[in-house]
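The protein record passed on below.

***
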Amino acid sequence: MRLTAPAALLLLLLCPIARADVDPRFADLRDHAEPMAGLGLFLENFVGECAGAPSAADCRKKVEGFRQKALGSPHYMILHESELSILAPGKFVPATGEYEIHLTPVFAGAGLALTEGTPLKLDKSGNPVVPLLTVKGTLPDNWTTPMFHNLFSRRGIRVQVVFTPTGIWRLAGPGGKAVQGVKAHLDGVLFTEARTGQALGLWLPASAPPSRPGARRASP
């Protein structure tokens, strides 16, 4: 079927995932992942708190069914502006435009957290401690140090994440209270400028296959 010009334009507007300016390596990951409306609901359903439920047995059955379906299945999410405190600027070299963006891979929602792998430990506030991920890139010649740092102060970076949940972690928190969350494998993280859509960087795991080259320190 041949689309008319207006119909083709409408299809492009309704299907942003078809945009050609997205790195094809990330586009492939995203297009094979389950899109999520919100991380909090996913974490609640995956972890499940059935102690106070009217029917604990039914609750546990529902949680187990959700978890089994989600385990090993890639999921796709876009971080909300309020969640971008996990980003921090690294070094920026004005002469070359080279820069680094640091990401703390702790994605929080509904009082729970999804982390890359199992946290090393919890801090004094009960927050999971995980190693930083770093993405490298090069900005155009007209970028200055204040412009680069302004990206973080105004939350001007759009972060798209593809992850695969692998299970639940549990650690002793403050006062001996157990803290739990979801451990996952990060398949890819794409950074773009929120206002213009300009590519900033793509993080891929070191174990990515040759067809999807990448490392913990990756570039666009």
Remarks:
- The chain is about 25% helix and 35% strand.
- Residues 41 and 92 are 37 Å apart (CA to CA).
- The radius of gyration is 19 Å.
